[in-house]
Each structure stands twice: as structure tokens, then as C-alpha cells.
Amino acid sequence: MRTWKFIPKVATSPTTTTDTTERRAILDDALGRVDRQVATLRTKIDRLEAMIAEAHARRAHLENHLAELDAGAEPTPHAHDGSSK
To answer: d(Cα 8, Cα 6) in Å, to the nearest integer?
Structure first.
């Protein structure tokens, strides 16, 4: 089993310096990190929404099979879109 060693992040806080230029650079860097995090999360949202839509489509397909079964219909061969994972 792998053990993880905690390595504290060595970052300067904007409150640990009185140099205005340095404080601005620290804050600009932090804003850039947050912007990248937001972009990453939005990409994940898009992927999750696509996965949910695919799951809804699979569910509707299965409900159609149940309706056919309830109606006494014989199973009919049909092609699937091949997107099941």
C-alpha cells in the first residue's frame, strides 16, 4: 500500500508581504488558478450532462421493450447504436 507524504504548498499569501507589486502578482496567479478550475469543472459538467442524456436514452429504449412485452408482442431483432459502455 502506498503512503502519501503531506507536502505543504509553499505559496505566499498576499497578506505576508507589504510589496504592492508582489501582492498583485500573487492575487493574479490565484485568479488564474481559480479560472482554470472553473473551466475544468465546466468541462466535467458537459461530460456528465452527455452521460445523463445517454442514460435517459437507454432507459427509454428499455421502457419500449417492456411496453412491447406487456402488449404481448414477439421480440423483434433490431440494431442498437453501439454506444453502450
So the answer is: 6
- Provide φ and ψ at 20, rounded to 5°: -60, -40
Q: Is residue 2 part of a domain?
A: no
φ, ψ (nearest 5 deg) of residue 4: -105, 130
Range of the domain at 33: 20-72
pTM of the model: 0.60
3-class secondary structure per residue, the chain: CCCCCCCCCCCCCCCCCCCHHHHHHHHHHHHHHHHHHHHHHHHHHHHHHHHHHHHHHHHHHHHHHHHHHHCCCCCCCCCCCCCCC
C-alpha 62/C-alpha 23 separation (Å) is 58
pLDDT in tens, 34-62: 999 999 999 999 999 999 999 999 999 99
